[in-house]
Amino acid sequence: MNLHEFQSKILLSSRGVHVPEGQAVSTKEEARNTARDLKAAGFAVKAQIRAGARGRAGGVRLVSLPEEAMAAAGDLLGRRLATEQTAPTGHLVRKVLVETAVEPLQSLYLSLFIGAATAEIVLLAACEGGDDIEQRIQNGQTRFERLALGAEQTLDKTAAAGLGARLGLAAGLIPPFVELLGQLRDAFLELDATLIEINPLSVVEPGRFVAVDAKITIDDNALFRHPDLMALREESESDAVEIAAQNRNLNYLALDGDIGLVVNGAGLGLATLDMVRAANGRPANFMDIRTTATSLDVAHGFALLLGNPAVRSILVNVHGGGMQPCDTIADGLGIAMRRNRRSLPIVVRLAGNNAEYARFRFANFGCKVIDCPDMWTAVTRAVSAAQSGESQP
Amino acid sequence: MTILVDHDTRVICQGMTGWAGTHYSAAMLEYGTRIVGGVRPGKAGTRHLNLPIFDTVAAGMAETDANASMVFVPPSNAAAAMIEAIEAGMPLVVALTERVPVRDMIRVRDALKQGATILVGPNSQGVLAPDVCKIGVMTTGRARRGTIGIMSRSASLTSEVIAQVSDAGLGQSTTVGIGGDAIHGLGMRECLELFLADQDTRGVVVIGEIGGSEEEELADFVAAVKPRIPVVALIVGRYAPIEHRMGHAGAIAQGLAGDAESKIRALQAAGVIIAESPHLVGATMREALFVTA
């Protein structure tokens, strides 16, 4: 789960990390009032979406007056912001963060993440931050310093200070830097984070670091021990559909094509996307039905596709495994078809556990499906059905 | 021959009395796997599926001659169960549990450094040597005894590839679900080492996907050892939604962003044969064996 910037900053600031003064608001009037209360010389108005590269996409505005903050908020709120890191349709801006603008003396890049190969928490820092960091990495213009942080012991302060020195920090900045790393490491462990990224981390006055931007990703698999963070997830209504799908044991992500996909398992889901694109088709979604999903959960997934007017054919690619036989998926489709009057060409490819029984279930529900013997035949059939706009078989 | 399991594999199931443990243990017994007992704290002395239940893995090992454990314990306690088995000195632990928190897996990997245990998973679909031994949840209907080793990060795609390999007339020596999580036990590189050491494995299929750096590490290993048998790889996720593909700057800087194209390039450069599409894995392996022969 990716947290919003404002949520990340609240969590970090409660653990002693300095962040710019400010507040997240959802109306332009609140934006103006917040700016007035901040009594600063300048303000940053930042669109709150769960994706990076907002600056270059016009999602961050620097203004000097409360009225200008109101205008900027009015412009950003309610619109969809697309960045290099989102789909072209972008994300809906429901909140903006209004903050005191900072004048950095110096800026750094800092991130903590899980180094999978070595199974440890890795800290990565560069002596210059900024929102073009990805490009500068690719061009080899930025030098990184790396430090592995132990999982259960406390922070090795000598190593942290050494990292600060390697980054070329002034002597006076080393003690606050070490303190900050300790706070971030504790936050990482306490929150069950998989990423904390601070970019930029700025020095605004001698000896004081401020997290000007912050991004935290929480391990979804650990949310069961963080009911407070679970509540933050509900706060973002922009992906209400995806959250509803999650609650139905479906990993669902909307895309902008016309072929609805129903697939069990993440790997087969990715493989199906690749094949549809290779056949010049346009997927309307990514779907991974988890092994724990029931036929009612699957029906919810089908209903999402039937309810999407852009969808012109549905491709069901299921390899029944030991944990989820094909008939669960067939029952899900049958239930959804009985609830929804819309008829679409439904191309199915069933293999593995209970494939034959699933065909029997389709017949019992009166579902007319185009049954294909293998994946590639099914993919090309679903693509041609979508392109020709045929109705039911 | 097979890898990881053989006719002498004797399994105890941690979490045997739960729904999943019961269901899959029964299926394994039916397949012919030698399950010798189960572990469920507080139920020592009782029997389940007509097998003895123990409080701890150590007690189970003392009372039976178990040399493998499979973990069906729910996510909140799965790491503790794995660590218990590792500390008891269990030679092979196969963890089926999905959704184990990554922080817990850091502790498990720490524990692995101490002993000689091989951990497969978590979030593994198990290990299947057709007609010899099955540990886990894999379907066996399309599996055939044969000479191809399969290792995979994805369960549903594995069932598909097993069927393709069988349809190509090849069959499998062993199929290993190494697990879909970022931090897990046995890696692709170690799994390939095991396959290369097995005289009867004549080809290896690798099923990888975007994210992480295991495929890249495997490529380095293949380039270094130059295996005499063909290695065929399928990498999925070329067209994954952009939100799934975006690595953060830290990951990019570490070469860990792991997009499909860079994995494919690395593997190809190392001499691994890339299956052009997910439906062509079996055919690609058959052709590769024909060329090698």
TrEMBL record, chain A:
NCBIfam families linked to this entry: PRK00696.1
Keywords: ATP-binding, Ligase, Magnesium, Metal-binding, Nucleotide-binding, Tricarboxylic acid cycle
Enzyme Commission designation: 6.2.1.5
Name of the gene encoding the protein in the UniProt record: sucC
Domain (ATP-grasp): residue spans on this chain: 9-227
Sections of the chain in a coiled coil: none
Record flagged with keyword NADP: no
Highest classification ranks of the organism: Bacteria, Pseudomonadati, Pseudomonadota, Alphaproteobacteria, Hyphomicrobiales
SUPFAM superfamilies: Glutathione synthetase ATP-binding domain-like, Succinyl-CoA synthetase domains
Pfam families, per the entry: ATP-grasp_2, Ligase_CoA
InterPro entries to which the protein is assigned, alphabetical: ATP-grasp, ATP-grasp_succ-CoA_synth-type, ATP_grasp_subdomain_1, SUCC_ACL_C, Succ_CoA_ligase-like_bsu, Succinyl-CoA_synth-like
Official protein name in the record: Succinate--CoA ligase (ADP-forming) subunit beta
GO molecular function: succinate-CoA ligase (ADP-forming) activity
UniProtKB/TrEMBL annotation, chain B:
EC number: 6.2.1.5
Coiled coil: none
Domain of life per record: Bacteria
Boundaries of every CoA-binding domain copy: 4-100
UniProtKB keywords: Ligase, Nucleotide-binding, Tricarboxylic acid cycle
GO molecular function: succinate-CoA ligase (ADP-forming) activity
Name of protein: Succinyl-CoA synthetase subunit alpha
Lineage of producing organism: Bacteria, Pseudomonadati, Pseudomonadota, Alphaproteobacteria, Hyphomicrobiales
Gene: sucD
